[in-house]
Design brief:
4-stranded antiparallel beta sheet, 7-stranded mixed beta sheet, 11 helices, 30% strand, 23% helix
């Protein structure tokens, strides 16, 4: 009886902690972050899957209790190590409303469950919205144990890793909101990559613990502290990458980024890289991005200014690919999608970014470049024709006679894009943080450098 009473008390405590987040959907927003998190690290809901109508969970360590969201104090079933629980979508199961939530909550401190091959701390929840969701309910600090190593790696200094923990903690806490009905973050790059207990190491836990409760704040609210792999030598103002400057994250020097090459070939590829495109490839990319047909390639133009804003790092803010029948333009971070690039810190060269439709060999032995096939006439099998006709080849009359010309091969020299950095370039550069940590900077100094150049932003300890 004592054991049962202990379990009932324990499940009540755990359930209250879990429901603190769930009930946020009906409670008014807190006055500020300090009040919101005064009780310590909150629970966060991490989406693990939404691609099935049933999910299987296995208890690895400790004991769990099955409860509902509406009555978490009423234990429906208890499960010990080795138990396998299969959750079916409410529309396939009897006895539960379609929008009900089933929760598998830990009865002990050191409980672990297995889902899709990985181990997780905390609890498990299923719910039916526009999909059938599988969600991990876990303390934010324990959540970070499963995030930090996946995001920055496992082989770097405590200070670099702790700086990553602060950024990831800030991002996570800023993501918890009343508007989130079923989950707060995903376990992928759309939020932060999360591998649960399976992604933990002692060094990662030490870095998280060293920075426990510290976040980046602005106007009494936790900042969604963005970070990227490598800023290419300088980070960027947030409004020059996206379309909001609600939080004044400013571009700062990140010359440490260049040292990424000293760590690995992968590090080198994150700092500087080159992409070579043919004109036809640029047309394909433009057509796919704009869902259009711009015709044959004419030129590509790159601007570091857009709508009255200028990049502080030299990033492209507007790129237009011009074709014979139209053009496609992408702005700010969308440029990466248009050109399939690692970053927007780029320089374009090769043929001045313009098409050379054909080269004609003259009687003096020199080639004459023609930028537009519409300006060039040639003799084909059916007589004189414009060179921009539908035939695959054309014939050019020169001093040496009639020469066959492959129209595809007559395109200009390839367009070369030299680039620096990997990612959007806002907030902390991970490779910069790694190099700073090895140079003796503390995690506090790393955070303050990348996030706190604007005096309204500061590093604070919430709990």
């Amino acid at each position: 009886m004592v054991r049962v009473r202990y379990q009932l008390w324990k499940i009540g405590v755990v359930a209250v902690c879990c429901l603190a987040v769930l009930l946020a959907v009906v409670l008014p927003a807190p006055v500020d972050a300090a009040e919101q998190f005064a009780a310590g690290a909150p629970m966060i809901r991490v989406l693990l899957s939404s691609h099935s109508s049933s999910y299987a969970v296995t208890v690895e360590e400790g004991e769990y209790a099955l409860v509902t969201e509406d009555a978490p104090q009423d234990i429906l079933q208890e499960y010990g190590p080795g138990s396998r629980i299969v959750f079916h979508s409410p529309e396939e199961a009897d006895g539960f409303a379609e929008d009900s939530m089933l929760m598998l909550l830990p009865l002990d401190e050191d409980c672990l469950f297995r889902f899709n091959g990985l181990l997780y701390r905390g609890g498990f929840q299923t719910s039916r919205g526009d999909a059938y969701y599988a969600v991990n309910l876990v303390d934010v600090e324990q959540y970070l144990y499963g995030v930090v190593g996946y995001e920055i790696g496992y082989d770097y200094s405590l200070d670099a890793t702790a700086a990553q923990a602060v950024a990831a903690r800030s991002y996570a806490l800023a993501s918890i909101g009343a508007e989130n009905r079923y989950y707060d973050v995903t376990n992928t790059v759309s939020s932060q990559v999360y591998g649960g207990y399976s992604a933990e190491t002692a060094a990662i836990r030490a870095a998280v613990d060293a920075s426990c409760g510290y976040v980046v704040m602005c106007d009494d609210e936790v900042v969604q502290a963005y970070y990227c792999s490598n800023a290419g030598g300088h980070t960027e103002n947030i409004e020059n990458v996206w379309y909001s400057d609600e939080v004044p994250l400013r571009g700062v020097d990140s010359s440490w980024d260049a040292l990424a090459a000293e760590y690995s070939d992968y590090g080198a590829s994150c700092y500087s890289w080159t992409v070579t495109y043919s004109p036809s490839t640029l047309v394909r990319l433009a057509n796919a991005y704009g869902d259009t047909d711009i015709g044959t390639f004419e030129e590509i133009t790159v601007y570091t200014e857009y709508d009255g804003q200028s990049s502080v790092s030299g990033r492209a803010m507007s790129v237009t690919i011009q074709g014979s029948r139209g053009s496609v333009t992408a702005t700010k971070d969308n440029i990466r999608s248009l050109l399939d690039l690692k970053s927007t810190l780029i320089q374009v060269s090769g043929g001045s970014g313009k098409q050379v439709a054909a080269y004609v060999l003259g009687s003096n032995g020199e080639l004459t470049a023609w930028e537009k096939l519409s300006d060039l006439f040639a003799t084909g099998g059916n007589g004189a024709m414009h060179a921009n006709g539908e035939e695959d080849t054309l014939y050019v009359v020169t001093a040496y006679g009639v020469e066959e010309l492959d129209k595809e091969a007559s395109q200009s020299e390839e367009i070369i894009i030299n680039g620096w950095g990997y990612g959007h370039g806002v907030g902390m550069s991970q490779w910069g943080a790694i190099a700073m940590g090895d140079a003796g900077y503390s995690w506090e100094e790393i955070i303050e450098h990348y996030y706190c150049s604007d005096r309204s932003i500061s590093l604070e300890q919430l709990y």
